[in-house]
Amino acid sequence: MTKYAYLLSGSAGHSLSPAMHNAAFGALGLDAHYEALGVTEADLPERVARLREDDVYGANVTIPHKLAVIPLLDALTPEAQRVGAVNTILNRGGELTGHNTDVGGFLRALKDASGYDPESRDVVMLGAGGSARAVGFALLRAGATLGIVNRTTSKAEALAGALGRYGNVAAVRPDGVISAVQRASLLVNTTSAGHDTHGAGQLPLPHGILPREMVVDIIYRPVRTPLLAAAEREGLKTQNGLPMLVYQGAEALELWTGQDAPTEVMFGALREALE
Ligand code: ATR
Question: How far is the C-alpha of 139 from the C-alpha of 132, rounded, in Å?
Answer without folding.
Answer: 10
